[in-house]
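Supplementary Methods S3. Input chains for the assembly prediction are listed below.
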Amino acid sequence: MAHTPSNGSTSTFVSRRRFVQTTGVAGALAFAGCLGGDDDDGNGGNGSSGNGDDNGGISGTIIATGSNTVAPITDRAGETFMDEYPDASVDVDPQGTGAGFSEFTQGNSDVQSASRMISEDEIDQAEANDVDYSYYEVGTDGLAVVKHADNDWLEEITLDELKTVWEYESDVQLWSDIRDEYPDEEIHLHARDSASGTFDYFTANIIGEVGLIRDDYSATSQTNEIMDAVANNEYAFGWGGLGYLRAIEDDQPIEAVPVESDVDGEFYYPTGDNIEDGLYSPLARPLYIFLSHYSLEDRPNLIGSFARFYFNGQRDFAPQEGFYASPPDVPQENHEELTEVLEDLGVEDRVEIQPDV
Amino acid sequence: MSTKIDDELFGSADLQWEKLKNKLFLGICFTASLFGVVVLVFLLADVAYEAGIGIVEFDINIGQFLTEGGRRDPEDAGFYAAIVASVWLMALTAVMAFVVGVGSAIYLEEYAPDTRITRLIEANLANLAGVPSVVYGLLVLAAVVNGFGTGSILLAGAIALALLIVPIIIVSTQEALRAVPDGLRNGSYATGATQWQTIRQVVLPAAIPGILTGTILALARAIGETAPLIMVGILFTARRPPGPLDSFSAMPSQIYVWAAQPQPHFHHLAALGIVVLLAFMLTMNAVAVFLRNRYEREL
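Predicted structure tokens for the full assembly:
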């Protein structure tokens, strides 16, 4: 489901970035001079690179920001890419979708992993900074609702109950506030903070509005911490990316809770089959990467080849990291979309790697 | 308590109670001094335990850990690239901070007249030494990474760390220079030596053990700093050893990235990484202590 936003013309956005790039090269040269001309590929971001990929070799540094959830997939793609093209380096910084978009929309990153769609504010910011982009689906994630293994009362949860627990100014303080037969024990809530795409996805789809969540739960940017906290407390309750649950559920006392499906009203565990069949809904979601068109135009062979490489292998990369592959026709759609973007930018013949799916 | 003995005679000296207070106070002070040690022991024990589990249960091979770069598969992952990044950082930081720090200390101690401006500079240096490290990170992010447009390169990280420790080096160098008795300087001047000759051949040789000790201790602080590196650099898996103009992920950054991974195997790699980082730090501290003891002599 790739798509280019129709707004934002590709011809006018380069001027300011060009300036930054020129000063960047000058700065890098000045530093290189100080150090006696160390001339290896000192590409520390899109500021200091730009040369060196017209001659056919795939080399340079790709800065990838974004989702803590999607980062493992992009990092896996990057590592495989680096193994094959040793002159290229893919640096994946897993700081969260929101934090990553803040860098991406300022033109500080080439590839942005996202566990949700770009928001209105972020679109505005990208426009203000003349950053043009397109996005591509690279995998599917289940969002797991988790409880401690000794919790034998919570056998399933309805979407209404989830909303009641997590909505803004929720008055659920005890487990018995959810259902009367649950224990009169305080409920300890753990979830992601607002820098996260998982947070936005959950609040939008469960509560009904992005960010409209109670303010008295333990919020963290690290899904690990949620899983650890729930595995350590019988009365804890939380949610987070399924990959993080899969990594520890065999060794730690933590379990997924079956969630009501908005498809048929039955309760489903976040298993691969349920997610791929579309039954684990609304808590299964597509994962994306965004490509900066500035970076694509600046270093078409490096960024374009990486994107091609990513799409070629995406149905392997996602499962290797505990996620689910996107539907079979998605990689091809991604390639077609990228071809269109590259043609618009006039650089399609400078990308070495071709689609092979 | 002792108040049973003489409730009515409140105010008269109660020797037992006074002695007890004496002991109590000693006990409190002793506990306070022990607190830091106990916390340190717990910390080291916890890290060693986690790292030990990693080696025993997850079969982490220490040789591979020290010679391979980071990988997505924890079984293949190592710390080598991050170690190289940190060594580069330390080398560049040491050169920059030493030149600037020792230079300004010599000026302030040996040349500068005792004016209001000198005192203002010294007061500012003392304050700079207390500025949180993340602020230096932000400064370099704005001035170097975005200002000069260098991107998140290792050299920019070294500049941030150098800025962080320059005030510490200045202060410790000043102390070392002050410890050189004026008699030595005056003796040198009496032979007709210039100020440059005096500083180079008399003052600096006498002060260098103190200067080196201060510098190494400052570097030992810098090697574990994470906040400036988060600001200046990017946190990613360090797969290949970087050069000064490459993007980098140093030891603290790599530890952070591993700790954020879903798989527990990575968490034990992070623990082993902490052991390596601590080993670096303790070695540097040991070298500083050695230098101080070896070269400290009566002047």
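The domain at 86-250 of chain B is CATH 1.10.3720.10 (MetI-like fold). The longest helix of chain B spans residues 15-57.
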